[in-house]
Structures are given as structure tokens and as C-alpha cells.
């Protein structure tokens, strides 16, 4: 119909998959909702002819909607979320930066505020650092902060890993991080005050207890302090 995006039928025996690209994109499918594939953007439903009357649930896959908290000095502040764009050889993972709502702003949907989408996890974290600066610091304060970022490029199950480390990755007690500095752009840069990830400062492949990812304004958490650059 004119003005309505086409909704196609799925294979009912694989309701969790997109019928076009076969990407796993529905965590808990219902016959009475329209879903959006997080990989190729296809809209699909069990009864596509009823699309006018069905709830459009959007992207619902667990991988894309999972929130990865980014606390500041251990206090809740924002979170990252994956976004998977494209298909085949052109597919890429991107990272959305979100801010938990504050009293300075009217209520937003689900009390969160979208900031930006970045190609790298550290870049998305830099956007969160900028808002922490904007809300809590003097505009002319150009002091850097430390970022502890989950290192998703590290192969956790290679031959150099011990059985104890592999067990820690599997049960969620260990994670792999990179640690580096987020710096603000200095005047007269047009983005003065906004943060960026200083890639040359990052140390990667650091194995430490899970739950350390975040922004630190003074010093890195103790398990990573020996590998963190000095502010």
C-alpha cells in the first residue's frame, strides 16, 4: 500500500531469523508484531497483511539492545549499545552512546538520551565523557580522563590462554580491556571541549576482573593501574 513500508512474511519454523538475510534478529518472537532486522532493515511479520493493525516492535534482538554501562568513577552515567549495519562484506559494527537522563532535562523515552553513533567503542565513550564534562565541569577545564574499554578484538580462547583464564571468560568473572586517555579538543578547534580517544595512549589486551569498563577522572581501577597512562 502507498505510504507503508513493505512487510514480508517470515519462515515460521525459524521465527527468530530475518527472512531476507537470515540474521538472528528477534529474541522472543510473537505472531502479532512487526519486527525490523538489525542487519538489513527488512520489516517482517507472521501476518504481513495485518501490518496496519499490528504493533511495530522495531529491533528486538538481544545483542543489539543490550546496554553496556559506562559509569563515571563508579557512578551510573551512560551506556553503550551495539549497532550492526550493512550485510555481507560491507557489514560493520558500530556503537551508540547514550546518557541516562538527568534533572536538567525533561523526561525522555525510558529516561535515556541518545548522543551519537561511532565506529569504535572508545569514540562512543568519548561522547559520554563530553557530556559528563558539559554537565559537571567548567567549560574551560581541559584536563583529560581515563577510559577503560572492553577490548573486543582480543581473541580470548587462543592457545596462549590458561584454562583458568578461559573459565573466567566463560563464567563472566574476567574480561579483556584496553586503557587509554580521552582528551578534550583545545581552542581554537571548532569542537573545543569535546573529547576524543587518543589512540596512541591505549594499552590493549589487559586481562582483569569483569565490570571495570568506564570513565575515570583521577586514576584507573587498581587491577589496571600499572598499565594505565598518567594523566
Radius of gyration: 21 Å
Helix content: 10-25%
| Gap between N and C termini | 59 Å
Number of helices: 3
Mean pLDDT: 85
> Which consecutive residue ranges, at least 5 long each, have pLDDT under 50?
none
Order of adjacent strands in the largest pleated sheet: 1-3-2-4
Q: Give the overall silhouette.
A: globular
Q: How many individual β-strands? A: 12
Order of SSEs: EEEEHEEEEHEHEEE
Structural class: mainly beta
Q: What portion of the residues fall into strands of 2 or more residues?
A: 35-45%
Characterize the largest beta sheet: strand count, sense, and whether it forms a barrel.
Answer: 4 strands, mixed
How does this structure look, described?
27% of the residues are buried. It is built from three helices and twelve strands. A hairpin with a 6-residue loop joins strand 6 and strand 7 (92-100). The chain starts with 6 loop residues before the first strand and ends in a 15-residue tail after the last strand. A four-stranded mixed β-sheet has the order 1-3-2-4, with no helix packed on it. Strands 5-6-7-8 form a four-stranded antiparallel β-sheet. Strands 11-10-9-12 form a four-stranded antiparallel β-sheet. The model has no long low-confidence stretch (mean pLDDT 85). It has 231 residues and is mainly beta.
Task: Give a quick precis of the structure.
The chain is mainly beta. The protein is 13% helix and 35% strand. It is built from 3 helices and 12 strands, in the order E-E-E-E-H-E-E-E-E-H-E-H-E-E-E.
List the topology elements:
Layout (H helix, E strand, L loop, with lengths): L6 E3 L23 E4 L6 E3 L9 E4 L3 H4 L2 E5 L2 E11 L6 E9 L11 E7 L2 H16 L8 E6 L12 H9 L2 E11 L10 E15 L4 E3 L15
Parallel strand pairs: 1-3, 2-4
Antiparallel strand pairs: 2-3, 5-6, 6-7, 7-8, 9-10, 9-12, 10-11
